[in-house]
């Protein structure tokens, strides 16, 4: 079984925030007849299902922790312990300040770069889980980061849905450990936008 986690904050006031792009990805993933209903478990909203891969169906527990971002690791640890899922079978999709809007990278391990959700998960599981880094861009100044990640995506940023869809469609490659192929396919399906969303008037 794979644990596929999207990071974000619970509540309608945060639903369209940049910080919640991981939740948006999970919503697209579980919007499929291959996934069962959403349930409350492991301090999260979870749905069980499967994703077809060339080596057969892969069983998935899709998760949106409801602990708020800073305590995401509590929920992830609970589910991973219950199902005995090893860190290398845990994929965490999250917003990434250090990537331009719409860019995507998949990597195993690394630091948290100040991301409190990753910091929390690393505190419980160590660093060796897979990260799906979904670029939201940087506001340019450190003191603006907090308000930037908690601001809503602009209506003109139609790349957000495209990127989430691409991450779902290409997911079999990630589950097979084909990181480079997965990144290439995601960017083929959802090329990064050429405009800077910070300059777009909402």
Describe the structure.
Keywords: Cytoplasm, Hydrolase, RNA-binding, tRNA-binding. Belongs to the PTH family. The record marks 9 as: Discriminates between blocked and unblocked aminoacyl-tRNA. The record marks 95 as: Stabilizes the basic form of H active site to accept a proton. GO terms for molecular function: peptidyl-tRNA hydrolase activity. With 202 residues, this protein is α/β, with parallel strands linked by helices. It has one domain (2-199): Peptidyl-tRNA hydrolase (Rossmann fold, 3-Layer(aba) Sandwich), CATH 3.40.50. Helix content is 32%, strand content 23%. It has helices spanning 21-30, 72-83, 116-125, 145-149, 159-169, 171-175, 179-189; strands spanning 2-6, 39-41, 44-53, 56-65, 90-96, 104-108, 130-135. The chain has a seven-stranded mixed β-sheet. β2 (39-41) and β3 form a beta hairpin. α5 runs antiparallel to α7 (179-189). The longest helix is centred in the middle third of the chain and has 12 residues, at 72-83. The radius of gyration is 16 Å and the shape is globular. The mean pLDDT is 93.
Please give a handful of descriptors for the protein shown.
202 residues; 7-stranded mixed β-sheet; Rossmann fold; alpha/beta; globular; 32% helix
The ordered H/E elements are: EHEEEHEEHEHHHH
How much of the sequence lies in strands comes to 15-25%
- The CATH architecture is 3-Layer(aba) Sandwich
By CATH, the topology is Rossmann fold
Q: What kind of sheet is the major sheet?
A: 7 strands, mixed
Low-confidence residue ranges: none
* Number of beta-strand segments: 7
CATH superfamily caption: Peptidyl-tRNA hydrolase
The portion of residues assigned to helices is 25-40%
- Overall shape: globular
Secondary-structure-derived class: alpha/beta
Give the neighbour order of strands across the main sheet. 2-3-4-1-5-7-6
Give the total of domains.
1
CATH class: Alpha Beta
User: Radius of gyration in whole Å, from Cα?
Assistant: 16 Å
Distance between the termini: 41 Å
Keywords: Cytoplasm, Hydrolase, RNA-binding, tRNA-binding
Main location: cytoplasm
Enzyme class: hydrolase
Protein name: Peptidyl-tRNA hydrolase
């Amino acid at each position: 079984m794979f644990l596929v986690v999207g990071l974000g904050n619970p509540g309608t006031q945060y639903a369209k925030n940049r910080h919640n792009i991981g939740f948006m990805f999970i919503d697209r993933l579980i919007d499929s007849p291959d996934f069962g209903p959403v349930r409350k478990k492991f301090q999260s909203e979870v749905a069980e299902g499967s994703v077809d891969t060339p080596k057969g169906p892969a069983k998935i527990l899709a998760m949106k922790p409801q602990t708020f971002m800073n305590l995401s690791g509590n929920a992830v640890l609970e589910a991973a312990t219950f199902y005995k899922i090893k860190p290398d079978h845990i994929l965490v999709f999250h917003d990434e300040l250090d990537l331009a809007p719409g860019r995507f990278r998949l990597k195993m391990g690394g630091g948290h770069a100040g991301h409190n959700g990753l910091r929390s998960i690393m505190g419980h599981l160590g660093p060796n889980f897979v990260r799906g880094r979904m670029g939201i861009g940087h506001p340019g100044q450190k003191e603006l980061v907090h308000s930037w990640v908690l601001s809503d995506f602009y209506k003109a940023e139609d790349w957000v849905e495209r990127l989430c869809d691409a991450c779902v469609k290409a997911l079999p490659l990630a589950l097979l450990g084909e990181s480079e192929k997965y990144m290439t396919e995601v960017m083929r399906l959802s090329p990064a936008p050429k405009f800077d969303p910070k300059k777009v008037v909402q």
